[in-house]
Design brief:
This protein has 62 residues and is α+β, with helices and mostly antiparallel strands. It contains one helix and three strands, in the order E-E-H-E. The chain has a three-stranded antiparallel beta sheet with strand order 2-1-3, covered by helices on one side. The longest helix has 14 residues, at 33-46. The model has no long low-confidence stretch (mean pLDDT 93).
C-alpha cells in the first residue's frame, strides 16, 4: 500500500516542508494510517527536517 505524506511546520502550518511517498505492506501485512505517520516521522528525523514536536504530518487522499 502506498501513501503520499506531506510534512508541515507547526509554526507555519501552510508551509510545506517535504513530501514522502511511503510504501508499506509488501510483506502481506495491513499497515494502518498510524504506521504511515510513524514511518514519515522516522524519515523526517533521519533527514533532519524536524521532530514530532515541530512537524505536522498529513496523508493525502485520506
Amino acid at each position: 500500500m502506498r501513501k503520499i505524506i506531506d510534512l508541515y511546520k507547526k509554526s507555519a502550518k501552510d508551509q510545506l516542508v517535504w513530501t514522502y511517498i511511503i510504501n508499506l505492506g509488501q510483506d502481506g501485512s495491513h499497515p494502518s494510517i498510524l504506521d504511515f505517520k510513524e514511518e514519515a516521522l522516522r524519515l523526517a528525523v533521519i533527514d533532519n527536517l524536524g521532530t514530532e514536536q515541530t512537524l505536522i504530518i498529513k496523508i493525502r487522499g485520506y
